[in-house]
Specification:
- By secondary structure, the chain is an all-alpha fold.
- It has two domains: about 70 residues; about 55 residues, no CATH class.
- The protein has five helices and no strands.
- Belongs to the binding-protein-dependent transport system permease family.
- Pfam families: BPD_transp_1.
Length: about 120
């Protein structure tokens, strides 16, 4: 949600005539994404990404300094593997699992919200 809200606002601000002009001029859909849509939403994407990074950094610090002994969260596992053990491939895999879990839960939330008619 922290990235999606600014991103959706950025997508809503794209002038439809730019997309139509690119299509009429024969631009491939990937080229339209790369040269029209992406540059237009880049500020919103960076704003959402910085919000996400700020929140993640804040929560990681809390868990790192106040967390109970023996409690192992996914961010703590990434930190342990990458920083303490220098095992970057395992750290990347754990981070990927964390991202996939987050995306899966977000999709479930969107599905449940769509079924109940709740707008977010």
């Amino acid at each position: 949600p922290l990235v999606m809200r600014p991103l959706m606002a950025g997508l809503r601000q794209i002038d439809k005539s730019q997309l139509e002009a690119a299509s009429i001029l024969g631009a491939h859909p990937l080229r339209v994404i790369g040269q029209v849509i992406f540059p237009a939403v880049l500020p919103a994407l960076m704003a959402g990404g910085s919000l996400c990074l700020l929140l993640t950094t804040n929560e990681f610090g809390i868990v790192l300094f106040i967390g109970a002994k023996g409690v192992n969260t996914l961010p703590m596992m990434v930190y342990s593997k990458a920083i303490l053990e220098s095992d970057y491939s395992v750290a990347c895999m754990i981070a990927l699992i964390n991202i996939l879990l987050s995306l899966g839960l977000f999709m479930l939330y969107r599905l449940a919200a769509a079924r109940t008619g709740v707008r977010s």
